[in-house]
Amino acid sequence: MAIARWRRVARVSQVSARAALMQAVSCVPIFGTHFLSKASLVRVLLVSTCVLGTSFSTAVNGQASEVDLEQIDHLQAELGYRVGLYEYYQGDPLAALTFLEVDKVRVAERSAMVETVNAKDRADAHHDQIANARLLEAGIRLGYGLHRSARALLSQLVASPTLSEQGYAEATLYLAQWLYLHQQPDAALRVLKDIGSSLPEEQAQQAAYLEQLLAVKTGRSDVSTNKDAGPWQPYLLYNQAIGYAQSDDNDKAQQTLEQALTLISQGRAVEDDSWLDLLAWSFWFPPTPLPLSEQELQSLQDRVHLTRARLYRQQEDYPSAVDAYRQVSIEGMAAPEAMFSYGWTAFNAGDQPLSLKAWSALAQREDLTAEMLQVHLAIAWSYEQWGMQSQALNSYQQAAQSYQQILAELQSQIDSLAPEALMSQLLPDTDETWLSDQGIIKVASLPRLDPLMISQQMQARLIDARDLRLLQRNLLNWQRNMEQFDDMLEVRQLSREAQLAEIQAAPPQAEFDTLKAARDQIAAQVAQAEQDPEALATDEELAILKRLKRAEQTLSQLKEHPKYAQYAERLRRVRGTLDWQLRDDLVARQWQQTKSLKELDNLLRESEQRLTRLQRIVDTPSEQLALQQRVTQAQQDLTQQLLAVNSTYVALRQEIFNLVLGDLKRQHALVKEHLAQSQLAITRLYEHYLKIKQQQAFPQAAPAPSPATEADKANPEEIGEEGAS
Amino acid sequence: MFRAMIKRIYQATLLTLCGALFITANVTAEEQPLADKVEALKEQVVKLNRDLFILEEDLLFPATTQVTVYLSVDTGEFFKLDSVELKLDNERVAGYLYTDRQVSALHRGGIQRLFIGNLKAGKHELTAFFTGFGPDGREYRRGASLAFEKGTDAKVLELQVRDATETYQPEFKVVEWQ
Predict the structure, then answer these.
(1) How many angstroms away from the CA of B150 is the closest CA of chain A?
(2) What segment(s) does the record annotate as region Disordered (chain A) (predicted)?
């Protein structure tokens, strides 16, 4: 049963694990280009269940199951990290790591208590589960930003002699990924060489992807480039194409980019089995369908088209470049760049109306970065180049007006900026926990700051800020708890003192002695009843016996009485009846007395236990004190930790503030430069008209130079696609 | 058995790490210590949390009286858990309504610590009532109970909800671990 169960869990999890892991690696740029979308930054995928119904039935099945020793060992070995896993899937890695750490302590305690060799052997048999737990812990640590300890864990695992072959291969893969992500490609390649062949298919594809990516990055030619990277092949092809382009092999680069496009379209059309698998995956995980979501597929496709267009432009194949730019999605993040370059390509191809059309459309957009804002200048400059002076002047004036307005807005934004208010705006303080809502950090969108917000450096800081806030909350909760524990211990201490006083006032030993005497008396009666049934006679019977004895004494003195024989006979009959009755009831009475005796024994036992407990209370005053000391120490630690977290948060907040301020100032300076250029152009054009007027007024004056020639001198280097950088 | 879960963990963690890479790539030498400081703080808090957690257990639930009840769920094809009610010696001690996210965590191998409390040494009875939706979407209410003896060691019990493939019905058990 358990095996069937885990198989199912594994089947569900494998696909998503592969997906996100590869997604993570694929997002890493290799040549300064990346396509990490906001949505893909931090993501946890969830299973959703879909069992519904209305009818009702009730039954109670009162069964306890029995499990064998081996299964119990197995469950105990799993307990810690499965509880941690539950917390992790709740979006709380801090709680998950806490449980894992607590489990380590508990396991060590249990191991210390294990005495028999057999039990030790049983514990050793679960080293594979322990290794799994460590692998899991390393993953959670990575996700929580504890890179160093994660690396140490992975290195330990790789060096562990008890690790299974598959466990070793997995730990090696994750270590290689860690090294790659920490910019150690050569070390990652070395680690990968030792990975073996025991990885499951999905992870083998991950390894193939990583190895080939590293080969491109390091320029190694001894690595095979034909391994199947599964659904991540389009990313690999794209990166390989960039590599070819850098080594000036444009034809091969174009060919590889075409292959990537084909794969992407196949992925959408679900023509391949592996993609079918992914489609099934999307059914089970509706919140984040496919390892490559539609958004990311689109982003990758846009990047491929942009790169193709650039390569065509390098080869001065403008029609093909224009065609490639046209393929870029107008909704995507690459759209402004594509439209701007599209305009330039059309201009280079001599199609001014088309370039103006593209730039005019771009100028209408509201999401333009400071770099892209130079499109206003480009429009005006284009008119000027084509000798349309009045339109050029008009466009320069419009551009200057726009720039002035944007500068005012930027200045106002800079003036109103404050660290605390900025953080409140960026990360509204809600009750959300770690990675809630699919793990996407909800960052407020601020005007003109979107590119900065989606930059890796800002996202990393926002993650840290969010984590520090959660640490603050966690520590404050503990602080409150410790205060309560402190109070509780005080109450316990008072209660203990009251108990001690009570014990001193009325020693419980006296009550115990009374009970014991009563018990001994009954025991003696029961023992005597074996010989003499009268020992268990009732009060009424005892009264009759007493009267009988008195009558017998009296009768012994009346032997001469004429009715002596008659009286003696009556007395003998009464005595006989009584004796018969006593013997007849003896068994029942003995049972009754024995029962009473047992009840007394129970009472005595309880009293004895109570006495022991009381004695323990009297004898062990240090336990409370030790707990009190631990609570006091914990309170001190919490205060220190909270101070450290608070100060780091303030420093981080300032850092985020500086980044935002710096970006706004940079944009301000850039727009100011655009404004200066447009104003210079306006002045230049006015001067030109002035000279024409002068020429018309004084025809003998020398002819003025053509505006286009002047513009050529002034602008091409300043206003252009490359000027965007 | 847990390979898949581990892989799943890496899916999310490496996404974050991916972000971290850019820190190393883009930040200046002056900025790096702050990221290190945050990492060190997190390590310290994890350790502190561990110590506080153990202290809390020692204070509130000493081993001599401690009883803990965990809940695990199978793949859930025949039963979708909605709520659990727990009774100890006929007294209600815990009740839980599950969100989809929690059910999902259970299906993916997580175990929930449903209840931790104190019990005197001696004989006791644990009863659990499970409510949810069974095969064909029928509403289900099932129970399971276990009589157990509490000694001086901590008692650990697990409620298991499993799919019985032979009967195509959910199965409910209480297992005594220690």
Answers:
(1) 16
(2) 697-725
**Which is nearest to B46 in space by CA: A97, A491, A313?**
A97
Closest CA to A35 of A246, A245, A264, A268: A264
CB-CB under 8 Å, A42 with B10: no
Looking at per-residue pLDDT, the higher value among A211 and A496 belongs to: A211
The SS3 assignment for A417 reads coil
**A95-116 per-position pLDDT tens digit:** 999 999 998 888 888 777 765 5
Q: Test A143 with B9 for CB contact under 8 angstroms.
A: yes
Please choose, from the candidates B90, B69, B63, the residue with its C-alpha nearest in 3D space to the C-alpha of residue B174. Answer: B69
Å between B114 CA and nearest CA of chain A:
10
pTM as predicted: 0.71
What is the spatial distance between Cα B10 and Cα A434, in angstroms, rounded to a whole number? 16
ipTM given for this complex: 0.85
Is residue A275 within 8 A of residue A287, CB to CB? The reply is no
Alpha helices in A194-232 (DSSP H): 201-218
In chain B, whose CA is at the least distance from the CA of A176?
B14
Measured CA to CA, the distance from residue A532 to residue A582 in angstroms comes to 10
Nearest Cα residue to A174 out of B47, B8, B173: B8
Q: pLDDT for A313-343, tens place per residue? A: 999 999 999 999 999 988 888 889 899 999 9
B32 close contact with A: CB closer than 8 A: no
CB contact under 8 A, A12 and B49: no
| Spatial contact of B78 and B47, defined as CB atoms under 8 Å apart | no
Nearest CB to A21: which of B10, B70, B173?
A: B10
H-run or E-run covering B176: strand B169-176
**What is the amino acid identity at position A559?**
K
pLDDT at A64: 38
B63 touches chain A (CB under 8 A): no
| Cβ contact A183–B106 (<8 Å) | no
Q: Which two tokens stand for residue A274?
A: 């592996």
**Rg of chain B, C-alpha, whole Å:** 21
Q: From A22, which residue of chain B is nearest by alpha-carbon distance?
A: B11
Q: Using CA atoms, how far apart are residues A399 and A376, in angstroms rounded to an integer?
A: 5
Residue A234: phi and psi, rounded to 5, are -60, -40
d(CA B123, CA B125): 7
CB-based contact, B16 to chain A, within 8 Å: yes
Number of H helices, E strands in chain B: 3, 8
Q: Under a CB-based contact definition with an 8 Å cutoff, are residues B155 and B69 in contact?
A: no
Residue A89 vs residues A47, A106, A702: alpha-carbon distances, Å: 10, 22, 81
Nearest CA in chain A to B73: A5
Residue contact A60–B174, C-beta within 8 A: no
- Cβ <8 Å between A139 and B145: no
Per-residue pLDDT, averaged over B148-170, amounts to 87
**Which B residues in the span 79-118 are in contact with A, Cβ-Cβ below 8 Å?**
79-80, 100-113
- Rounded to an integer, what distance in angstroms lies between the CA atom of residue A449 and that of residue A649? 21
Tell me which of A53-62, A241-250, A565-574 is least confident. Answer: A53-62
Distance from CA of B139 to the nearest CA of A (A): 5
- Put simply, the answer to whether A12 touches B107 (Cβ < 8 Å) is yes
- Domain extents in chain B: 2-60, 66-176
Largest pairwise CA distance in chain B: 65
Query: CA A720, CA A722: separation in Å to the nearest integer?
Result: 5
Other Cβ atoms within 10 Å of A434 Cβ, number: 23
Q: How far is A240 from chain B (nearest CA, A)?
A: 20
- Mapped onto helix, strand or coil, the DSSP state of residue A674 is helix
Contact B5 A9 (CB under 8 A): yes
Contacts of A88 in chain B (CB under 8 A): 9, 110
C-alpha distance from B177 to closest chain A C-alpha (Å): 6
CATH class for the region spanning B66-176: mainly beta
